[in-house]
């Protein structure tokens, strides 16, 4: 049987959708893991980046974190965490590794977004007597929103893709279908797992693109 | 009775590990570098004609860019899985997967560089009687170099980090040591291999930066 046909049969077999190891459960695990990591990473990165951008400090830091983050393999971080005391908290190492992975695009985009707000607009806001806090929340934040959302979108898509790594360390998610396929030497199952992850990543990209289109006009058109 | 050294105590930093496993570490590092270099070179060889095609034939630009975006959304673990039917469990599988990733980053950057060539510059060269090939080789490509080199650096650093995931098919360079170290709880091996990954990435980035300065001397004099 050819691989595409085998993959299709694997995916459409109802037995593969049910149960603890089934597609439905793994898909839910994957979505929950991604959403939790994205939320935690946003809570950490966005306030820091907004304040730094508002103050105009730490620009080199924001850019360098992004470069260093790319050089450190997420898989290595995950395994290192597994061997530390953090490794005993179940999904802890996976969440920490993925949050660290998601921080750079969020930090960089939010920082650059705030910095790129037209300086004349900021000065005008100051001139009308707005406090620093009001300038940040009522002028800079709304104007930087397209860039911030681009960062969130990048982070979300990369998280969906990278969350597959959790399976290498025994965690849940769609990666488990792939690793189990490798262990069973079942190419259709491996390819089916890959198709599912890629489809989910494209779906998330699509949802963000649609949300940007449906959202208020000034949130559109954020260039990376 | 086993000797009481840092290996027996399973410490993170262990000189005895370095001296007894020198051969293994060297082999893994060489494999890591070999996979990275091959993947990025193949990616570059494919990216240049694609970017040129997208630049020359306007209708080709959309599909080329859309194709590369979709490629980049496919998770690395899934990418290896999707290529499994073509290459089997081999080093070529990892090289091919990473070449496709490098390709996506490189096409975008080269195209950005080519589009950034000022129209007046092109017109001036045409006015001097330059043919299309001479225009491309002596005017457009050199001016696109800074953007292309930036893409090459990002692609290389990302590839160094993604090679580790090749461990899932047994060809991951230093990733093999991390994977094996995870299963045997071998702290010194995981930390040493992870640090070596980062060292390779930083070294590769610095080498490419030096090359960039050498081949684009005009960007230096401008800044000075």
Q: Give the radius of gyration of chain B.
A: 22 Å
N-to-C terminal Cα separation of chain A, in Å? Answer: 44 Å
The largest pleated sheet of chain A is described as: none
CATH class of chain A: Mainly Alpha
Please estimate the helix content of chain A.
over 70%
- The CATH topology of chain A corresponds to MetI-like fold
Oligomer: heterodimer
In the CATH hierarchy, what is the class of chain B?
Mainly Alpha
CATH level-4 homologous superfamily of chain B:
MetI-like
What average pLDDT do the residues of chain A reach? 87
- Count of β-strands of chain A: 0
What number of domains of chain A?
A: 1
Largest beta-sheet details of chain B: none
What is the β-strand count of chain B?
Answer: 0
- Counting helices, strands and paired strands, the structural category of chain A is mainly alpha
Q: By helix and strand content of chain B, what is the structural category?
A: mainly alpha
Helix content of chain B: over 70%
Tally of separate helices of chain A = 9
Number of domains of chain B: 1
CATH level-two architecture of chain B = Orthogonal Bundle
CATH topology of chain B: MetI-like fold
Note down, in words, how this protein is organized.
- The complex is a heterodimer of chains A (224) and B (224).
- Helix content of chain A is 74%, strand content 0%.
- With 224 residues, chain A is mainly α.
- Chain A has a single domain, classed as MetI-like (MetI-like fold).
- The longest helix of chain A has 33 residues.
- The N and C termini of chain A lie far apart (44 Å).
- The relative contact order of chain A is 0.15.
- The mean pLDDT of chain A is 87.
- Chain B is mostly helical and 224 residues long.
- Chain B has one domain: MetI-like fold.
- In chain B, α2 packs across α5 and α3 packs across α5.
- The longest helix of chain B has 35 residues.
- Chains A and B meet through α3, α4, α7, α8 and α9 of A and α4, α7, α8 and α9 of B.
């Amino acid at each position: 049987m050819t691989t595409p046909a085998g993959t299709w049969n694997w995916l459409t077999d109802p037995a593969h959708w049910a149960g603890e190891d089934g597609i439905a459960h793994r898909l839910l695990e994957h979505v929950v893991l991604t959403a939790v990591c994205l939320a935690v990473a946003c809570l950490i990165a966005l306030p820091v980046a907004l304040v730094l951008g508002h103050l105009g400090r730490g620009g080199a830091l924001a850019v360098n974190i992004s470069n260093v983050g790319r050089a450190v393999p997420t898989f290595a971080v995950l395994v290192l965490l597994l061997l530390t005391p953090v490794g005993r908290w179940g999904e802890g190492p996976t969440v920490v590794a993925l949050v660290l992975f998601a921080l750079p695009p969020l930090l960089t985009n939010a920082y650059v977004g705030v910095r790129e707000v037209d300086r004349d607009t900021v000065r005008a806001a100051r001139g009308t007597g707005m406090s620093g806090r009001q300038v940040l929340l009522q002028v800079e934040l709304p104007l930087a929103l397209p860039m911030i959302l681009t960062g969130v979108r990048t982070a979300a898509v990369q998280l969906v893709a990278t969350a597959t790594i959790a399976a290498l360390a025994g965690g849940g998610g769609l990666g488990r279908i792939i690793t189990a396929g490798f262990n069973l030497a079942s190419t259709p199952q491996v390819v089916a797992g890959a198709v599912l992850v890629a489809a989910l990543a494209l779906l998330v990209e699509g949802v963000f693109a649609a949300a940007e289109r449906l959202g208020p006009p000034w949130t559109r058109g954020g260039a990376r | 009775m086993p000797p009481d050294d840092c290996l027996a105590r399973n410490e993170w930093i262990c000189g005895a590990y370095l001296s007894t496993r020198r051969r293994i570490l060297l082999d893994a590092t060489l494999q890591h570098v070999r996979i990275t270099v091959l993947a990025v070179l193949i990616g570059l060889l494919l990216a240049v004609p694609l970017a040129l095609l997208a630049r020359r034939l306007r209708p080709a630009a959309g599909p080329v860019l859309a194709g590369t975006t979709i490629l980049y959304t496919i998770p690395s673990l899934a990418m290896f899985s999707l290529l499994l039917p073509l290459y089997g469990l081999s080093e070529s599988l990892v090289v091919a997967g990473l070449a496709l990733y490098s390709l996506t980053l490189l096409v975008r950057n080269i195209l950005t560089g080519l589009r950034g060539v000022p129209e007046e510059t092109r017109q001036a060269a045409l006015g001097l009687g330059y043919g299309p090939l001479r225009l491309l080789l002596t005017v457009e490509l050199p001016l696109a170099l800074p953007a292309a080199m930036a893409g090459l650096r990002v692609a290389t650093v990302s590839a160094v980090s993604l090679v580790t995931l090749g461990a899932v098919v047994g060809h991951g360079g230093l990733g093999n040591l991390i994977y094996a170290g995870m299963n045997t709880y071998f702290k010194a091996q995981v930390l040493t291999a992870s640090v070596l990954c980062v060292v390779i990435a930083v070294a590769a980035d610095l080498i490419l930066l030096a090359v960039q300065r050498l081949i684009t001397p005009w960007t230096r004099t401008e800044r000075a």
